Amino acid sequence: MNVVEKRLSSMLRRLAPLAAKVSRQRLQEIVNDAFGLDWVEPSPPKAFKYQAQNGLVLNVRPELRGSNYYWFVNKQIGDAKHHIYLAPAGKLEKVLLENAAKQITG
Questions:
Q1: For residue range 80-95, what is the model confidence (pLDDT) as tens digits?
Q2: Does residue 43 contact residue 82 with C-beta atoms inside 8 Å?
Q3: 68-75 long-range contacts, Cβ below 8 Å, gap at least 24?
Q4: Model-level pTM greater than 0.70?
Q5: Residue among 73, 55, 72, 56 at smallest CA distance from 64
Q6: Sign, Cα dihedral of 41, 71, 93, 48
């Protein structure tokens, strides 16, 4: 277990009393924000908004194709509509979201 994981584990134990009031996923998000840890993919897949470093807000949503979910970005700027494939569910990373924002803004 590395230093960050130890700190994360310690913080989660101290925040345990909040667990009754907040979902485990939300608690994990709070801890990740506090430690500046990387973005975490929602599980199970559900639509969300992501603000990229360039300020662009992306509408990210899962689509069911066959029996699997895949992540897509939908964004309209002026008359241009963008529908960008990101990754299969379980493989979405922050860098993919940032790349999609760059692709849309040019």
A1: 899 999 999 999 988 8
A2: no
A3: 69/45, 71/45, 71/96, 73/97, 73/100, 73/104, 75/104
A4: no
A5: 72
A6: negative
Token reading at 35: 């430690």
pLDDT confidence bin for 37, thresholds 50/70/90: low
Q: Looking at the DSSP assignment, which residues form a beta bridge with residue 64?
A: 69
Over the stretch 63-76, which tens digit does the pLDDT of each residue have?
Answer: 999 999 999 999 98
The whole-angstrom separation of Cα 32 and Cα 94 is 14
- Report angle CA 43, 69, 85 to the nearest 5 degrees: 105
